[in-house]
Amino acid sequence: MTTVVAKWGNSLAIRLPKAWAEQLQIKEGTDVTFSMSGNSLVITPKKRKKYTLNELLEGMTPEKFHPEIDTGISMGNEV
């Protein structure tokens, strides 16, 4: 497959075909890294780190907990 390099502001841009993006699970906002291998450009999607519950709660202390709030009487599906 071939494509054309386009100008995007002061940079250059390459469009990624939809089928490839779906296969690689790349969507708008996905972080990627660029590297060179010989005369080839390699674009690699960065995988998001998966955190454990302990890692997410690591910095929490009782002083940092928010107090409970009362939102009134339960109504509708809340009951």
In short:
The chain contains two helices and four strands; from the N terminus they run ββαββα.
Report the uncertain regions: none
Helix content: 10-25%
Number of helices: 2
* Assembly context of the chains: single chain
Protein traits:
single chain, 79 residues, alpha+beta, two-stranded antiparallel ribbon, two-stranded antiparallel sheet, 2 helices, 14% helix
Structural overview:
The chain has 2 helices and 4 strands. It is an alpha+beta fold. The protein has helices spanning 18-24, 53-56, and strands at 6-8, 11-13, 32-37, 40-45.
What order do the helices and strands come in, and which of them pair?
Layout: E1 6-8, E2 11-13, H1 18-24, E3 32-37, E4 40-45, H2 53-56
Antiparallel strand pairs: 1-2, 3-4
